[in-house]
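Justification of computing resources. Each target in the renewal requires a structure prediction run like the one illustrated here; the chain below, 263 residues long, is used simply to show the kind of job we budget for.
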Amino acid sequence: TIFEPIKGSKVLVDAGGHSMAAFENKTLGMFLMAFENKAGLSIEAAAFRLYVSTLSTLGGTWTSGRPSVAGGLCESVKYFLDNLDQICQLNYFPSKQEDILLVRKATKGIVEHDFVIKKIPFEMVDVDSQRSQHQKWFQCFDGITSILFMVSLSECNQGLMEDWPTNWLVEFESIFETIINNKLFFNSIIAFLNKTDLLVEKMRSDPHQLEDLERYLVQCFCRWQEPQNARCSTTAIDGESLFMFHAVTNTILKEILKDIMLQ
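Resulting structure tokens:
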């Protein structure tokens, strides 16, 4: 799973596909594009580390001033590239907190999670956000109590992996508007404006004012807001944000009690 973020280096190569001369060593780029973690394909860790570290160094220089390229990289890629020496050790074991929390594994299809809170069973349905999967969402909306809409604020300057010219924020807004304006949905919709910590980190080198950007992002998802809807600004890996989850739990429980009273 930790290998997945490292494969994000391919974005640098793919972005330079029309101008491979931008990379000093085309062989390294071509190798990374062809490499997959498949059975039967073996390579010494030291060699792979050399390929990735060399390309990421060149790519970092090449993408300076090219946010559209850097934006295609998962935000955890930099962390794992910076720690390649440790990760490529034969006896490597993910022991640091960041090794676990910064792993990104995309949801494939529809995944159901069952858990119990305060002796009350919950079922959470996680759906694939790729465009090709949107039509499958509607089969999940029947009988639900609440919709939790996760927005990655740190991706406001990134493009879709399947359609780079389209900005992630524009895509989020479009999906959110479709859901909240659909007459079939009478449920509470809770928008989580997530990854605020990564947004702050990005804005350190950006000339725009952080407060202005945050205000704009909130307005993007609150112009359709109704009294029964709510929004939460969160950092998923921040333990202090757990109170947000408790607030969501209480909202869901209230909706359940309301349904029971109406029956």
